[in-house]
Specification:
The chain is of the alpha/beta class. The chain has one domain: Survival protein SurE-like phosphatase/nucleotidase (Stationary-phase Survival Protein Sure Homolog, Chain: A), CATH 3.40.1210.10. Helix content is 29%, strand content 24%. It has a 9-stranded mixed beta sheet with strand order 3-4-2-1-5-6-7-13-8, sandwiched between helices. A two-stranded antiparallel sheet has the order 9-12. β6, α5 and β7 form a beta-alpha-beta unit. The longest helix has 17 residues. It binds manganese (II) ion (MN).
């Protein structure tokens, strides 16, 4: 079993070190991760500057690019083999609901999924790495069960896993969840720079809005590990018909003879 690990918090983040330590004896495990924190970089690829790969003394390879760059490069030439699983994380903070759109942790996993490799994104619900050992143990538990049941053969799939920041004995069993929704983000924060210019800082994510039973928010608030299978098709299938009808009305209007009133 060959496992590729990446993240978005950077190769030195405690979360990726804990994840590597938790998974390293489950197979051949390699780390290719961003040099710096790339949280909220989603699926961004670096197209207009060169990427370099360096190796840290612990064997981790790091890239001056995004999470998706790391997995992309690994899968398209760097590794020289196809991993059986891509695992991303463990992220410093939740990736629930709308977070998944912005998340570099999910982006790294999604890059594996887009290449047909099964992939998992792991996040802790609170920032600050509290009880990281428990999250790592939960990540190991899930990965070893997936391997034991040979679910990698049913590829590709993409799992988003959020683990409550609690001691191991307080973490409740895994729940399969849909994504919740957040309220719109907090206001942008402005400050004046030492040179008198206005600086803008992106505000915090909104609080949970849809945290109904069955969502990732609900499950983790209750102390459960939340597992959401994700897909990438953003098509609004329910509205295909609505838009087909609307567009045919536009076309009918355009084809109609001009009215008497003219212009
Ligand atoms: Mn992050």
């Amino acid at each position: 079993m060959k496992i590729l690990i990446s993240n978005d918090d950077g190769f030195q983040a405690p979360g990726i070190v804990a994840l590597y330590d938790a998974l390293k004896d489950l197979g051949e495990v390699e780390v290719v991760a961003p040099e710096h924190n790339n949280s909220a970089k989603s699926n961004a690829l670096t197209l207009h500057s060169p990427l370099y790969i360096k190796q840290a003394s612990n064997g981790f390879r790091y890239v001056n690019g995004t999470p998706a760059d790391c997995v992309h490069i690994a899968l398209t030439g760097l590794l020289g083999y196809r991993p059986d699983l891509v695992v991303s994380g463990i992220n410093d903070g939740a990736n629930m609901g709308d977070d998944t759109i912005y998340s570099g942790t999910v982006g790294a996993a999604m890059e594996g999924y887009l290449f047909g490799v099964p992939a998992i994104a792991f996040s802790q619900t609170e920032k600050g790495w509290k009880h990281l050992d428990a999250a790592a143990a939960k990540a190991r538990e899930l990965v070893s069960q997936l391997l034991q049941h040979q679910l990698a053969a049913d590829a590709p799939w993409l799992l988003n896993v959020n683990i409550p920041s609690l001691p191991l004995e307080q973490i409740k069993p895994m729940r399969i969840c849909r994504l919740g929704r957040r309220h719109i983000a907090e206001k942008v924060i402005t400050q004046t720079s030492p040179r008198g210019e206005t600086m803008y800082w992106i505000g915090a994510a909104g609080k949970a809005k849809d945290d109904a039973d069955g969502t990732d928010f609900h499950a983790t608030f209750q102390g459960h590990v939340a597992l959401t299978p994700l897909q990438v098709d953003l098509t609004d299938h329910e509205r295909l018909h609505y838009w087909a009808q609307s567009v045919s009305r536009f076309e009918a209007d355009a084809a109609a003879p001009p009215s008497k009133a003219g212009r």
